[in-house]
Design goal:
The complex is a heterotrimer.
Chain A (H helix, E strand, L loop, with lengths): L3 E8 L13 E8 L4 E5 L6 H9 L6 E6 L2 E2 L10 E4 L11 H11 L4 H14 L15 H13 L6 E5 L7 H18 L3 E5 L2 H7 L2 E6 L2 E6 L1 H6 L4 H6 L6 E4 L1 E9 L2 E9 L6 E5 L4 E4 L5 E2 L1 E7 L3 E8 L2 E8 L10 E4 L5 E4 L2 E3 L2 E2 L6
Parallel strand pairs in A: 3-8, 3-9, 6-7, 7-8
Antiparallel strand pairs in A: 1-2, 1-4, 4-5, 9-10, 11-14, 12-13, 13-23, 14-21, 15-20, 16-20, 17-18, 18-19, 21-22
Chain B lengths: L1 E11 L2 E12 L3 E5 L6 H9 L6 E6 L2 E2 L10 E4 L11 H11 L4 H14 L15 H14 L4 E5 L7 H18 L2 E6 L2 H7 L2 E6 L2 E7 H6 L4 H6 L6 E8 L2 E3 L5 E3 L10 E7 L4 E2 L8 E12 L3 E8 L2 E8 L9 E6 L5 E3 L5 E3 L2 H5 L1
Parallel strand pairs in B: 3-8, 3-9, 6-7, 7-8
Antiparallel strand pairs in B: 1-2, 1-4, 4-5, 9-10, 11-12, 11-14, 12-13, 14-20, 15-19, 16-17, 16-19, 17-18, 20-21
Helix pairs in contact in B: 2-3, 2-4, 3-4
Chain C lengths: L8 H27 L1 E3 L5 E3 L3 H8 L1 H31 L6 H14 L2 H11 L6 H8 L10 H29 L3 H9 L4 H29 L3 H6 L11 H11 L3 H34 L1
Antiparallel strand pairs in C: 1-2
The chains are: A alpha+beta, B alpha+beta, C mainly alpha.
């Protein structure tokens, strides 16, 4: 096992990239710590699969290096990199039994027979398939097959990393719970470095210690789930994480307040004069609604009851913003004022978060 | 306009796919079919569309028996999980195709296509081919084709399942708006409880070929008729434990009991099954009257603003969804709390004995 | 999964039934009719019972032809199936060469049988043929019209040339349908090339290979035109396969009764062997699955 360092990496599918736009993966520098669980989150076409293929050795990047520990593996083929991968659709060897499937990577590397038997049984126990070891793999359900792929990835003790490429796509919703928690338990047990690629925020956030959010070929933020939720560094992160995403409103920012359509919104930090595209962002969870109370004028368009909370779609100076109201708190069609929690309002210039000077002791 | 399923059932090769089912769907309503894979959602939709003939029962459309009528002769539109478009035709031609088949005048077709395209945000893309579009746009195109027909019955079979999470969220918010404008009967199949709640309208919960309950979506969610419905309509699944009633108290094991208030007071003494939703499990007691259960933490999952806690209570696996980021040590013992007002009580056979009192207030 | 009871659909099948009746069932029944009767012309028939069948089964000539036929089909399958798979494995999976390869492979399949026979007849001639002349120039004593072994080799090479591309194309179709994730997983598992073939490619090609084997078996078992054009069944009876023998009986000697009985037995043998092939392979498939 080793730390993985993507050093000054960039990739373009065209041989002679002329501009930024020709890069499927724009220049990045990332370090994946040994033994951590990472998620690579982004919409389709954001470059996350390209990045995964570069780590697995399927694509050789047009620029930069990949280091496993101190070793440069940029030019090494997949087989020489000592990684494991679980794919979107379960890959099992149809004609083999579950046992043979799990043993395959070890047998191919000429492992000792006794060791193979012990190790396979240990893994089978972990993935809960000890009782079907001698069944043919092809007759199993999709989630069982996916467990086998997972087990085959874990069976080698020396893998540098296990890569997951949207592994729960074909799994039924009620089985996703089970597989996800099992994956976490396996990670805790064996301590492999895991990299999980997905477009599903719930999967990414619940799985990973650290989430890498990608957008348009760039890494826009790397952070813990809580950091991504509380301090999105980019408007895209705000939009992509959270349901519904962050409200982003064009504003003029001056000193300690933002102005939207001539109305003042207090901020908890002081900002210098900002130019370019200036917006404020605030999550629907941090808005409070009232009837004729303090705050800004709004009109309720729709109230959607999601059970444990309600999503209120508001009209705010001609644009739609959302508010999340927890269960048990009153909400009605007549409500017409909204208050922004100043501590939760971020200021964005050209989509990037800018830090103001704190007024009083705000947690960074 | 109404669609009535009168005791319809479907049997294939001696296996029952749909047990006798009666449903009445009214004009201008959104009806969600909610259930896991193979619960019978697609089978039920095919019966409604006329793609399959029921083994028993009648299908009545506007008071007229249409059981034997072919799908072509019914006014039905259907959208599938896969993006079904004509690959060689442009978006405009795709959307226009049902109207061309109906031989409408050219000007009328053009007006209808433009209107529907605007509704589905496909305005600028009318000259493109479907394969040049993103997944979300392709499914919008398929939806537009279903809507442009002005069909009385629009069937949507997990239409968003193949889309990216965020696109799904966007279209999901748009579908109720589109539906309100069309005035047709919408039927929408999904496996996700949250999707049913967001769409609103009515929900029929399905389990192993039976409709377990049909009613307004929030009502089905808050007052499930039985434990199966509660399980189907809860993600993560509802937590259960065995309890008993004796005299005027409910016994929760470990010497714990609470007074049987309201509807619970009327229950006969005996054994029951209690259920509560994951979001009603608390790590700190919100007030003194709460139930407390010892448990062992098996896993935590942080979503950013909330934490899923997976725990083991005397061999029962429970899930809780609690506010805030809780980095708890795996394997540690802890006490979890549940407000009795959030507890549903079911008979041992699963039928609802008394709903949670909070749900009656909501 | 979704079936409804509706008998009306049978009417849609009616035209096909009528067609099949005229094209297959009625001619077949005529043959059955002939096989049980004797005739001396003028449409006068006598009941012959199983006499012709007994005669056919007892005939040494026909037994020899059957032996030759089985040997021929076995050799053909043993060469064409592995060779076809090998060719398919060597074909490119993407790029412009794919279509070039596909067209080249399809070419022999588009040539009519009798033309194939004629091409090879000329090609293998010792006096003027490119192949025959080259071989004799090289000092190899080769003459397919005189030497039985040479005749066999020529017919087999001709059939392999003509039909291997069919197997290759089917195998290729099976290969390209394998998702790339399988190859990638195999690389990660450090599977050797042989293991990739044995555990991924071969299982995934199983379905199409079954079809290829059945088609090639039935076709080779009924081969007529090419050897008829090339060798006429000779030298001697060395390349007289069943169908050539049948035609000799039916047209050459005008023994309609025995010929009819012969063709029925022929038909049943093909049916039987194909059925055995099919069930064995399908069962194999199932057994692996349990």
């Amino acid at each position: 096992m080793a730390r993985i360092h993507l050093s000054n990496l960039a990739h373009s599918y065209s041989g002679t990239p002329r501009s930024e736009a020709d890069y499927a993966l724009k220049r990045l520098d990332l370090v994946w710590d040994d033994g951590s669980a990472y998620a690579l989150l982004g919409p389709s076409g954001c470059g996350k699969t390209t990045l995964l293929n570069i780590i697995s050795g399927l694509i050789i990047p047009s620029e930069g290096q990949i280091l496993f520990g101190e070793e440069d593996v940029t030019q090494l083929p997949t087989a020489a990199r000592n990684i494991a991968q679980v794919f979107q659709f379960p890959v099992v060897y149809d004609t083999m039994t579950v046992r043979e499937n799990l043993a395959f990577p070890l047998v191919n590397r000429g492992a000792d027979r006794d060791y193979v038997r012990r190790r396979v049984e240990q893994i089978a126990d972990m993935i809960g398939m000890a009782d079907v070891l001698d069944r043919a793999a092809r007759r199993l359900t999709a989630d069982a097959k996916q467990k086998i792929s997972l087990g085959r990835g874990m069976v080698r003790e020396d893998v540098n990393a296990i890569l997951f490429d949207e592994p729960l796509t074909v799994i039924d919703p009620h089985m996703k719970w089970e597989l996800r928690t099992q994956l976490k338990a396996l990670h805790r047990e064996f301590g492999h470095t895991m990299i999980y690629v997905t477009h599903d925020q719930t999967e990414a956030l619940t799985f990973a210690d650290k989430v890498v959010v990608m957008y348009d070929g760039q890494v826009v933020q790397t952070g813990t789930p809580a950091e991504l939720f509380e301090r999105p560094a980019h408007t895209f992160v705000g939009y992509f994480i959270g349901s519904p995403g962050m409200n982003v409103i064009p504003a003029r920012v001056e000193g300690t307040s933002a102005h939207v359509e001539g109305v003042e919104i207090p901020l908890d930090a002081s900002y210098p004069a900002l130019s370019g595209k200036v917006e404020i962002g605030v999550r629907p969870e941090f808005l409070t609604l009232s009837k004729d109370g303090p705050g800004l004028p709004v009109r309720v368009r729709r109230i959607e009851d999601v059970g444990r909370h309600r999503i209120v779609r508001l009209e705010f100076f001609g644009r739609e913003i959302n508010v999340v109201v927890p269960e048990g708190r009153p909400v009605s069609q007549e409500m017409n004022r909204v208050v922004f929690d100043p501590a939760r309002v971020g200021v964005y210039v050209e989509d990037r978060l800018v830090e103001g000077r704190m007024l009083q002791g705000r947690a960074a | 306009m109404t669609l009535v399923l009168d005791n319809v059932s479907k049997v294939v090769d001696g296996r029952t796919h749909i047990y006798p089912t009666s449903l009445t769907l009214e004009k201008g309503t959104m009806n969600v079919l909610l259930g896991p894979t193979l619960a019978g959602k697609t089978s039920l939709m095919r019966l409604m569309a006329g793609l399959d003939k029921p083994a028993t029962g009648r299908i009545v459309w506007n008071g007229e028996d249409v059981t034997d009528r072919r799908v072509q002769d019914r006014n039905v539109a259907m959208v599938y999980q896969q993006f079904v478009n004509y690959p060689t035709l442009s978006v405009w031609e795709n959307i226009a195709s049902p109207l061309k088949v109906a031989r409408r005048p050219r000007a009328e077709i053009d007006a209808a296509v433009k209107k529907t395209a605007a509704l589905m945000k496909l305005d600028g893309l009318l000259d493109r081919k479907p394969l040049e579009l993103s997944g979300g746009q392709q499914q919008r195109c398929a939806l537009a084709r279903a809507l442009v027909k002005d069909a009385g019955l629009v069937l949507l079979d997990e239409p968003l399942a193949n889309l990216d999470y965020k696109l799904r969220e966007e279209l999901r918010a748009e579908i109720p708006r589109i539906f309100e404008e069309s005035g047709a009967i919408f039927v929408y199949a999904t496996t996700e409880p949250e999707e049913a709640l967001l769409l609103g309208g009515n929900t029929a919960t399905l389990w192993e070929g039976r409709v377990t309950q049909f009613g307004r979506t929030p009502d089905v969610y808050r007052r499930p008729a039985d434990a199966v419905t509660a399980r189907v309509f809860s993600d993560p699944p509802m937590n259960f434990l065995k309890i008993a009633k004796a005299g005027d108290r409910l016994l929760f094991g470990e010497g714990q009991s609470v007074p049987a208030l309201g509807a619970l007071g009327a229950l006969k003494d005996g054994r029951y099954l209690a259920g509560f939703r994951p979001n009603h499990l608390e790590l700190e007691p919100p007030h003194p009257g709460c139930l407390a259960f010892p448990a062992v933490l098996s896993e935590t999952e942080i979503t950013g603003s909330e934490t899923y806690v997976h725990i083991d209570h005397g061999g029962e696996r429970w899930v809780g969804l609690v506010h805030g980021v809780r980095a708890l040590e795996h394997g540690r013992a802890l006490t979890v709390h549940v407000d009795p007002a959030h507890v549903y009580v079911f008979e041992e056979d699963g039928a609802l004995a008394a709903p949670a009192s909070y749900a009656l207030a909501a | 999964m979704d079936k409804t009871v509706n008998q009306k659909a049978w009417f849609l099948v009616l035209p096909v039934l009528v067609l099949v009746a005229f094209s297959a069932v009625i001619p077949l029944m005529t043959v059955v009719n002939y096989s049980f009767q004797d005739t001396f012309g003028q449409n006068v028939f006598f009941w012959a019972g199983f006499e012709w069948f007994e005669q056919v089964l007892a005939s040494e000539r026909i037994r020899d032809a059957l032996g030759r036929q089985i040997l021929f089909s076995a050799i053909i399958l043993a060469i064409e199936v592995p060779l076809g798979i090998l060719v398919a494995l060597c074909m490119p999976r993407k790029g412009i060469w794919v279509s070039v390869c596909l067209v080249l492979m399809a070419l022999p399949l588009l040539i009519p049988w009798n033309v194939v026979g004629t091409i090879w007849q000329v090609f293998a001639r010792v006096d003027i043929g490119l192949l025959g002349r080259t071989l004799s120039e090289l000092g190899i004593d080769y003459n397919y019209t005189q030497d039985a072994l040479d005749a066999w080799i020529t017919i087999i090479v001709m059939d392999v040339w003509h039909w291997t591309s069919l197997v290759a194309l089917l195998a290729y179709a099976g290969l390209v349908s394998i998702p790339s994730a399988y190859y990638q997983a195999a690389k990660i598992d450090q599977a050797s090339r042989w293991k990739v073939f044995r555990y991924i490619e071969l299982p995934k090609m199983q379905g199409v290979l079954l079809i290829a084997i059945l088609l090639r078996f039935m076709d080779s078992f009924m081969i007529y035109t090419e050897p008829f054009v090339l060798t006429g069944g000779g030298p001697g009876n060395a390349t007289t396969f069943l169908s050539i023998d049948l035609v000799k009986t039916a047209i050459g000697q005008f023994d309609l009764g025995p010929a009819a009985a012969f063709s029925l037995i022929y038909f049943l043998v093909i049916l039987l062997i194909s059925w055995v092939f099919y069930t064995v392979m399908v069962n194999l498939d199932k057994k692996e699955g349990v």
